[in-house]
Hints:
alpha/beta, 7-stranded mixed sheet, 9 strands, globular, binds S-adenosylmethionine
Amino acid sequence: MVCIINHQYVRYVNVFSAYFFARGLNGCIVIYAGLKDGMKLVDYGCGSGRLSTALAKELQINYLGIDIIDALLEYARLKSPAEYTFLNHQDLNVPIDDASVDMICAFSLFTHLLQAESYLYMEDMYRALKPGGRLVFSFLEFALPSHWFYFEATVTQHKTNTTPHLNMFMEKTAIQQWANHIGFKVVEFINGDINHFNGNALGQSVAILEK
Ligand SMILES: C[S@@+](CC[C@H](N)C(=O)[O-])C[C@H]1O[C@@H](n2cnc3c(N)ncnc32)[C@H](O)[C@@H]1O
């Protein structure tokens, strides 16, 4: 299975990704979730390298960034330490050996995929994580008033016949069910509208799951 890439989506990524996490916050989140020196991290949907550049200043880790857009990967590679690796991977799976990685993160990734696609990734992320390894991902939820902006923008695009951006919402109850089905334990949900890190709100909510 191959993901569909369109220019509208690429434009969306460029314009809106900055809204979701103030610079460096996603680094704070993975460290809060347990990332430490010596660990192997897969950054799924790594984009232009916001997380890789932030982490390079904080930790000595084995980093792999995966994305579907070469230009973003190239930019991330330029800004990141030489030992960090980057991969263009288009299939709905994780190109990593079984039980070989300590943490996988996906910031603003599942927010733009169909549910079945996210579920397939999550199943394969489980396979790739070591026992005790963690999956950290961000999501949009109807339960938070601050997330309605994104839904209303999509509704307006439908109303005005503008090609809509795919903004997928995932409620905590659904994430809990997915986790149960796959075998993950839910460690924590962090609400996107609360000032958790350095007094900053995350924007999107975050789920921390453990294998
Ligand atoms: C909103 S951006 C977030 C980028 C980065 N995680 C950040 O927080 O700065 C979403 C990223 O996911 C990538 N992406 C979308 N679908 C993907 C897929 N199926 N596999 C890997 N990356 C994907 C996009 O190319 C884009 O770089």
